[in-house]
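TASK: fixed-backbone design
INPUT:
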């Protein structure tokens, strides 16, 4: 299948899923509190899975220790201390640049 067609169909499918959820809720229905609480955790859990995969694997093999791992530690410390996604991302990016320049 053509890659552009795949991207288009994936985007259309994602859009339809989002619209259907909005249409269901907009008719006066309420989302149960437990479902709402679970939905709030989807984005952080997806981000954590992506970060863990990037930290541990490279081309299907275990990633050797490097700048990414040091930056992840710095970012985790900043996240715990400041509880801010913006500061965490900024600290992680700067740490990757510094560790990559040093190593």
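OUTPUT:
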């Amino acid at each position: 299948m053509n890659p552009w067609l795949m991207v288009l169909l994936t985007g259309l499918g994602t859009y339809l899923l989002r619209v259907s959820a909005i249409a269901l809720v907009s008719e006066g229905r309420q989302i149960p509190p437990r479902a709402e609480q679970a939905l709030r955790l989807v984005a952080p859990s997806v981000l954590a899975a992506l970060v863990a995969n990037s930290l541990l694997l490279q081309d299907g093999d275990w990633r050797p220790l490097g700048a990414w791992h040091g930056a992840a530690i710095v970012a985790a410390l900043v996240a715990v201390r400041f509880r801010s996604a913006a500061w965490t991302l900024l600290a992680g990016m700067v740490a990757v640049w510094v560790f990559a320049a040093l190593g």
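COMMENT: The longest helix spans residues 3-26.
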